Amino acid sequence: MKRSVLLFLIFICASGIRTYAQQQLINGKLVPAVLRMKNGDSVTTIKQWEEKRRPELIDFFRKEMYGQSPGKPTQLTFKVFDSDKKALGGKATRKQIAVYFEGNKDVEMGILLYIPNQVKHKVPAFVSLNFFGNQSVHPDTSIKLPTGRMVLEGQGVVNHLATAASRGSDTARWPIEMILDKGYAIATVYYGDIDPDNRTEITTGVRSLYPDLQNRADNFGTIAAWAWGLSRAMDYLETDKRIDSKRIAVLGLSRLGKAALWAGATDERFTLTISNESGAGGAKLFHSIAGESIRKLCTKFPNWYCRNFNKYIDRDDVLPFDQHMVISLVAPRPVYIASASEDLNSNPEGEFWGAKGADPVYRLLNTNGLPAASWPAINTPITGRIAYHNRSGKHDITNYDWIQFLNFADRYLKDQYPVDR
Length: 421
Ligand code: GCU
Hints:
- With about 425 residues, the protein is of the alpha/beta class.
- It folds into 2 domains: about 1-65 and about 270-390, no CATH class; about 70-265, 3-Layer(aba) Sandwich (Rossmann fold).
- The chain has helices at about 5-20, 45-65, 85-90, 175-180, 190-195, 220-240, 255-265, 295-300, 325-330, 350-355, 360-365, 400-410, and strands spanning about 25, 30, 75-85, 90-100, 105-115, 125-130, 155-160, 160, 185-190, 245-255, 270-275, 335-340, 380-385, 385-390.
- A hairpin with a 2-residue loop joins strand 7 (about 155-160) and strand 8 (about 160).
- The longest helix has 21 residues, at about 45-65.
- It is globular.
- This is 4-O-methyl-glucuronoyl methylesterase-like domain-containing protein.
C-alpha cells in the first residue's frame, strides 16, 4: 500500500476515534460529551471542570442560546411596602416588596414573601415565578392586586386586567400552607413584571431597560430575563434578616422551569434547583428528537432565546451541545428534574436523559449523581444529588410534585452544605 494512502487511512481512523471520544453515549445516542473541552481535551479533575469547562460552557450558552444578561444592576432598590406578622391567621409573616432597577420606576417587580412564624432560626426559602400574578397564589386579600396589563387571560384576569376574582385562582399550584408547615418561606414574583413574553417588541419589562443590548444577536432573551429576575429576588432575600440566603431553592414550571434551570445554572447562590416539566430548551435533550423541536421553539417563541439560537434550527440531533450540559452547570448543587407522563410536548423521557447526561459531572464532583440506569416507572421518584420523577397526568405542578420537592429540600437544605443521604 502506498505510504500516502496508509497515512490517509490512519488519519481517518484517528479522527473517527476522536469524534467518538468527544461524544457521550446517552440512551444509545451519541451526544456531545460534557466532560470534553471544545479543543478535545478531556476533563478529569474538579479543578479542570471548575476553572475551564464550566466557564467554557457558560460562555457558549450565553452567546449561542440564552443570550448575555446584564448582570446585577448598578442601582437596585427594594421598597418593603407591606409587612404583617399575623398573616394567614398568625401562621406567617407576609411581606411585599417593590423592586426597581437602574434608578428607573417604569419597571416594577413585586415580590410576595411568606415566612413561617413557627421557625425561630433563619428560614430556608423557595423562590418561584407565577403565571397569573402574586394575588393568584393565595386568597389572602392583603396581597396587592396587579394594576398593569397581564400577559394571560382567564382565572379572573379579564381583558388582560386582574379582577378580584383572580385572587387565589391558582392555589392548586401553590400549596402555601403546606410549604410553611414544612418550615420553608416562599417568595414569588409575577413573571410578567420581569418580561411580558412579547414575541416581537421589547418595549416593557426589564429588557427594555437595556436598549444598547437589543440589536445584538446575543441579547438576553425572555428565558434569561426571567432568570435574571429570579437573581434579583435572590438579591432581596440576601438582605432579609429572617431568611437564610445560603439555603434557597429556585423552582419553576414549564417556560418558568426553563428559566429556573438557567437561574440555577448561572447563579451559584441558588442552593437547589427544581425544573418542573421544562421540556425543550429546559431539561429535555434535543438529540432525543421527540417533543418540541428547536424549529418550533424558535418560531412560536422567537423571544425566548437569543437570535444566534436560530442557527441550530433543524439540527436537533447533530447539535454540538445539549441540555445535559446546562443541567451540569448546577453541579454539585442538588437539582430536581420532573416530568408528567401526559406532557408529550415536553418529552418526559428526553427530560430524564437530560438529567442522566449530567451524571458524569456530578460523579466527578464526588456526589452520587442520578442513581438510575434507565427511565423509571411513573410515580417512582429517584433521588440522588440529581433527582427525577415522572408524575402521572398532565402538564402542571400538583401537590404530588410539591411533596417530592419538599422532601428533596428536607434532604439537601437541612444542612448548610449538602451531603448525600
Ligand atoms: C408551550 C411550549 C413549551 C412551554 C410551555 C409553557 O407548550 O411549547 O416549551 O414549556 O408552553 O411554558 O407553558
